[in-house]
Amino acid sequence: MSAKKKIVVKIGSSLLANSNNLTLRYAFISGLLSDLAQLQKEGHNIILTSSGSVALGLNMVGKRPEDAGVLDKQAAAACGQPLLMNAYRQVASEYDLDVAQMLVTVEDMEERRRFLNIKNTMLRLFENDIMPIINENDSIATRELRVGDNDRLSAKVAQMVEADELIILTSVEGLYDRDPSDPDAKFIHEIEDVSEHLETTTGTSALGSGGMLTKMHAANMAQNAGVETIIAEGIIERPVSSVLNKERRFTRCLVRGETASPLKVWLSNRLQVSGTLVVSNEIAENVAKKKSGISRMDIISLQGDFSKGDVLHVYNEKGKEVARGLTNFSSEEIMLLARHLEMPVENVIGYKTKSDIVGAENILVLEENHLQLEAPEHDQKIVIPA
User: Fold this and answer.
1) 186 annotated to bind ligand
2) 213 annotated among ligand-binding-site residues
3) What domains, with CATH codes, occur in the chain?
4) Is 34 annotated for ligand binding?
5) Is 109 annotated as a binding residue?
6) Which of 343, 347, 325 is nearest to 279 (CA)?
7) Which end of the chain is more exposed for a tag (fewer CB within 10 A), N or C?
8) Residue 214, annotated ligand binder?
């Protein structure tokens, strides 16, 4: 492995914390950081996406993973994050490795300006040979506003920095065609179409919030961003370089087709749905053929409380998601515009701007390799009068 790479490494709570007493596994951390320090010395830029803060803080709040509620986990994250980072800093110093902490929320990753600010910070850390350690800010996240798992967060980070490799270390060697406990289970070395394997990837670990299903979702996000994903067992000695050098087996999720522009990739990889638009089947077909944007006359209904610049998910009348795009208006403005079709846009909202709700240049048409999201159940669905 001679070429210099940008590598995102994701590790879960089950690798970092002992499942019985919820204490740090220092041997694993030492082996991991020793390996990453050597890779950095060879010229590679490394980002570590780390879980573990909740698991490590549960003892302090007197809870076990199976009986901890949302507030318990938020408090545990506040207790566990300093323990986790202190361990990383102490062990990293033994290998002359400088590390920095970055805590993010789903809103940080979904809002374009914050997303770019995070990217710029990481690139500056690279320039100074500092390895970013990223985790979701569980202390302030809610059930509705969670990245949900660090697998998908790691894929967003890989997309952000245009990484060469996303390496997800887990408790198994990789993906099997069925439950690994089944004696007839076959190991899958290489995957081209992630969607073909979603039905076989259920279940989560005792400590983590994800399982193999979320790893497949992450792999799909990375594929669409032009990033190869490797799923491998988190061994103690050289856990990352042994994979990069193909010294042990793992599952490789290949990149498919040409990669879209960074903006279109960002549009395609969503962690939550800000709002939805339903348009007629005819309009949906025009959008899918990249012939038009979406005007106020095209909208049948809308859902969600969103702002200008949010990403909207566009569905046809059959409930199929056909595209995603940046809205030029808030949900309140769209309702006003749709109910006053006879009036010029500037007269309705009080300022002059583009007339399309979503411009054609800011629309990503979903292809077969994109995992579609079902329209969420909002408290209110607004039907636009014809």
Assistant:
1) no
2) yes
3) 6-264 (3.40.1160.10), 273-383 (2.30.130.10)
4) no
5) no
6) 325
7) C
8) yes
